[in-house]
Amino acid sequence: GAMRSRGEVDATLQTAKVNPAELLPVVHCLSFGPQAGAGECCLLQLEPGLCAELEAGRSLVIRGEKDEQAVLCSKDKTYDMKIADTSNMLLFIPGCKTPEQLNADQASCNIIHSQIAGFGNNYWELRRCRPKLKKLRKLLMEDPYEGPDSRKDQTLTFSKYTTEDLLNLIQASEEEILHQLQVIDACKIEGYWRILDFDYEMKLLNHVTQLIDSESWSLSKVPLRTCLEELGSLEPIEMIEHILLSYGRKYIDDAGEVYFEMHEDKICRAIAHMLLQNAVKFNLLEFQEVWQQSVPEGMTTRLDQLKGLALVDKSSRPETIFLLKVEDLPEDNQERFNSLFGIREKWTEVDITPYIQDLCAEKQTVGALLTKYARSSMQNGVKVYNSRRPIS
Prior knowledge:
InterPro entries: Dcc1. The chain is α+β, with helices and mostly antiparallel strands.
């Protein structure tokens, strides 16, 4: 339309019964530009930290395959993206001045004609979420590494994933993905991330523990160089070093020699896993006996080393223990609880905690999760939790 004059503006204010004295003297006259359309622009609401990332020239990435809900990732955090509708139309006006800027700029003319470049009725809202990392293990488990002599590896058909591939496939930030690769003891072989086949991993661990035993080394001071010299003829030295890194902490002594302090709990846990994977259920007392005999000398087995790996059934006579791995359970909260209540109707907080701990969002407690997804009751003076919904 035609440009408005000050007189027309004042007349409009009078019709609207607005007192001009209560307003800033400057008036914005808006008109729609030729290209203004809905859906041309998207609005994204950022928290200050993410805003600073962009201003510093870093990029944010949207990740997800076609069947997944999109997430947005910074270098080290992951956010769920949800569309938030607004009741007011949002107008995009380039070079728009805020009241603060106008107040500071007294000399500005009192009518500003602005063109609306676009408009929207919604914006994307970001909510910090847990990175969706379950898929990482699943992809790498398609073809676990069975060692240098494996027939399977010599065929070219197995699934191979580089860091780049994983960044495209996993809905998590780069730092979260690299951290998780460490957690699941993945190793890079010829540029591809692999998980060791469990039997092969146990074979390597066994070589190392037998050597420690025969050399009578202290578990807190295992020398890398001698390990590589002694075991290098049996397995690739990268693998020997990888197993030491997976089951120990690397350090350098005053003379510059590299040593490993072995993680007792992790070694005991792996050996329990090996023993339990061959039986559906195991008599608890017999298992504890065999387990203690199977670990390297000087190590002590304790049931709390098995959190999130195995579950003791105290209600059966005699008591039994069986394999239940947290990484095999669903990633979605409700599905996880459905699955756990399918395995056991009533849980104590102590028993269920290792199986839901990883679901806790930032600053969320296990107690809060249980309140939401389970109902509690008392059984023989002990608080137990069961499903909120009937299990089908």
